[in-house]
Amino acid sequence: MSNPETRDWSAVVEDGATKTNEPVSSAVADPEAATRRHEPHEPPREHLPERLYEKREFVHNKRIDGPFRRFKWFVMVVTLAIYYVTPWIRWDRGPYAPDQAVLVDLAHRRFYMFGIEIWPHEFYFVAGLLIMAGIGLFLVTSAVGRAWCGYACPQTVWTDLFQHVDRFVDGDRNARRRLDNAPWTWGKIFRRAFKWTIYLLIGLVTGGAWILYFADAPTLLRDFFSGEAAPIAYITVAVLTLTTVTLGGFMREQVCIYMCPWPRIQTAMLDEKSLIVTYKDWRGEPRGSVKKARRNPGQFGDCIDCTQCVQVCPTGIDIREGPQIGCITCALCIDACDRVMKDIGRPRGLIDYATLEDCEREAAGEAPRSPWRTLLRPRTVAYFLIWGGIGGALLFALGVRSHTELTVAPDRNPHYMLLSDGSVRNSYTLKLRNMESRPRRMEIALEGLPGAVMWTDAIGKNDAAASQTVTVPADLVRQVRAYVALPAGTKAQAFTFRLTSLDEQNESDEVTTRFDAPEEQ
Ligand code: SF4
Ligand code: SF4
Question: Residue 34 — pLDDT band, cuts 50, 70, 90?
């Protein structure tokens, strides 16, 4: 550890800029201490930052091929396909419900997802899914580090897409850098206009796909282009087009490094047993070219300082400086370095997925542990059990939920009425919920109220009986005014309304309420 007593705190002026050895953070003040505490393999920092804010250098990452790049392609195609195609998948729910497989029907307050239909009073299913998504992220992070950031996060996927557009229009890294620095000519203006038009189209398709989740996709698309869609549809598409182009086309890695809170949370969740992309400095240092290494055997490590790992990095960082928040663990630097190692005939894996614990073992000459021990450890198993438990509970609740529901609200003003024949009448507002996508006949019966009869606004008093049958429209709540009467002399008492569906499902629901009567009777 460097001694604060002997540290040089002086400031000097070089080229008009003040440079000082005064620390800007505890990590900079004592890099070795920070290294030992959090980042055992980070090489000591040699230079202090000259200023706290550095002008952004646009990242022009180089094309690379390899197993991780191909996996990234696969995830990108699958996630984009899911996003753009899902609103067009049809799902037959009969004539009374929409036939779009995934639909957030705000007008009718329903969420459809294939065979599942969620009503507003069942929002706990959505809450459960959100909790599962959160715990799923914890699970993935503790098992394989920032895999979400590296492969599946929308910011990563769209940034990757925009970077491919750059490569398609302007060429690979060097050509793009040259074009950036070149003066504005008609050729450059044309290329920029062409590229930004593609950006805009991607943004438009992205925003356009989003609104299709909220209405019947073919109808909305037709209305959108004929100018008959609701203003909110145009506003939403405009906002999403703008944000997609801004975040994916221009801000890119800045979102991951400065705007997104998730890297900070994830960093706190990683431990020495989490898989991260690591440069094995004990193997790579000191760096030196192949020629130098040949001339001085045993003097140099495996890193030939070719900077291929830096050039392919989509966030523009140098992983050889140690784990850092800008690393989204996309592993493209592994592909790049493995290729270099192959070309110069050295073993792959100078940069690799590894846990800090394994790095220490490897550096000490011991064999790394099995990857299963990384994946199957108490923390990941606990996350998985919680995640699976919530999923199981949601599935169970979905499986046993009734599609028939009854609510009862007794009239309280007045509590009862005395009819001309001396009988006592109470009034109730019943809500009959039919969650099936077809009309259903349902029976409302009185239980625990001997001698009582019931009628409704639609069924006259002459047809009063202990039970009545009504039809509830598909996928709706039908409100019914029910009148219950008992002969004179009845006392106040509790009783039950029972609602039963008269179909093969024979579902039922019941509500116990109160029949009020004058005390003297
Ligand atoms: S790609 Fe490998 S060899 Fe080249 S600079 Fe990076 S770590 Fe060193
Ligand atoms: S350092 Fe490697 S793993 Fe990290 S973001 Fe860059 S290329 Fe991806």
Answer: very low
